[in-house]
Write a structure and sequence with these properties.
The chain is built from 15 helices and five strands. It is mainly α.
Length: 355
């Protein structure tokens, strides 16, 4: 709410880098309808893939992991869940389903935020409830040292700060004097700085980011996992969040590093969306194209298991068959033997030639 209050009192010129993002994203949204009128089956594959990646990546950022072999079953099936980690991945998928089904009309309210937290946290005692004890964001180092990265809003003030955050957001959105995407980033920053929940704040912030995108007509999160892109750029995520939170309590912070980070993630998602739809039109089929894209985005050696994490709805046998074909085409090489062998792209690798 400090960022939104800052903007409501004195909104200066938009930084040049931010204006470039806004221009690029406006163009991407304009072309969005052309891409979403592609084959329904191809879009269905993208939606299912993004749903799995989002549920897994958003939880993995917070240290919640599940067995790779059970991912698709946890997300799409109805198995007995083994532990809390599986429950939270399933809960996040349920929250995503709510956004996908009602994203255009679901309001940004306290009730919505508490509902998203309740779903994402699963069957735990404080799901859907604000924190009951003060707790700062602590960074712990490998040598045992620790430091307070950010001092969050106190328990006593959390309901008041959340109300002000929501009120400011409604007011500024209705006035329409500030680009809505900038308000989206500002809201997300303020939410994380308030840190209203004992646990699950990061996951709820990503769900809110998706929800606000849908309400603004930016639909790419249905087909490309925003959460996976954030995980792949996790260091920059924490770096910009720390930069923009310094001086937040005093209203003397610089929100633009974090706002620009979120806009860059959205831009990356649209770029990937266009690339993937082009690949899905290849004769090799939807799943093969997804695997090819995952290999193309991989830096350095990788294993079949690594590909499985990126493409959890593709069988191990199919992954191995694709790699074998690529090896025959001299696109990749195997660096060892056995099921744990590493693979590597050759210098001649070109995504287009594999299609």
């Amino acid at each position: 709410m400090k960022t939104l209050r800052l903007f409501s009192e004195n909104f200066a010129a938009v930084p040049v880098a931010t204006s470039w993002y806004l221009s690029d994203l406006a163009e991407a949204r304009g072309k969005q309808a052309l891409f979403t009128h592609q084959s329904p089956q191809r879009l269905k594959v993208l939606r299912e893939h993004a749903l799995i990646e989002s549920a897994v990546s958003s939880n993995r950022i917070e240290g919640v992991e599940v067995e790779q072999s059970r991912i698709a079953t946890i997300v799409f099936g109805k198995p007995l869940l083994k532990d809390r980690d599986e429950e939270e991945v399933r809960g996040y998928r349920q929250a995503l389903t709510l956004l996908h089904e009602q994203g255009h009309t679901l309001p940004i309210t306290e009730k919505t935020i508490l509902t998203l937290h309740s779903l994402a946290r699963g069957d735990i005692w404080d799901a859907g409830k604000y924190k009951e004890k003060d707790g700062d964001i602590i960074e712990r180092f490998p040598d045992g040292r620790s430091r307070i990265r950010f001092k969050t809003v106190s328990t006593a003030n959390t309901p008041l700060y959340m109300k002000e955050l929501l009120d400011h957001n409604d007011q500024l959105m209705s006035e329409n004097n500030i680009p809505p995407l900038i308000l989206l980033g500002a809201f997300n920053l303020d939410f994380l700085c308030v840190h209203p929940f004992r646990d699950g704040n990061g996951r709820v912030s990503r769900l809110l980011f998706l929800l606000q995108c849908y309400r603004l007509g930016f639909e790419v999160g249905r087909y490309i996992s925003i959460e996976r892109l954030i995980e792949q750029n996790k260091e920059r995520y924490y770096e910009t969040l720390e930069q923009s939170s310094q001086g937040w309590h005093e209203g003397k912070h610089d929100p633009w590093p974090y706002i620009n980070y979120l806009l860059s993630i959205l831009k990356l998602a649209y770029r990937e969306f266009e690339q993937r739809l082009g690949q899905l039109q290849s004769s090799k089929g939807e799943k093969t194209s997804l695997v090819l894209h995952a290999i193309d985005q991989t830096l350095g050696p990788f294993s079949v298991a690594d590909l499985g994490l990126r493409c959890p709805n593709v069988s191990v046998d199919m992954l191995r068959r694709i790699l074998k074909n690529l090896k025959a085409e001299h696109q990749v090489q195997c660096l060892g033997r056995g099921q744990n062998a590493k693979w590597q792209k050759n210098a001649t690798w070109q995504l287009g030639t594999t299609e």
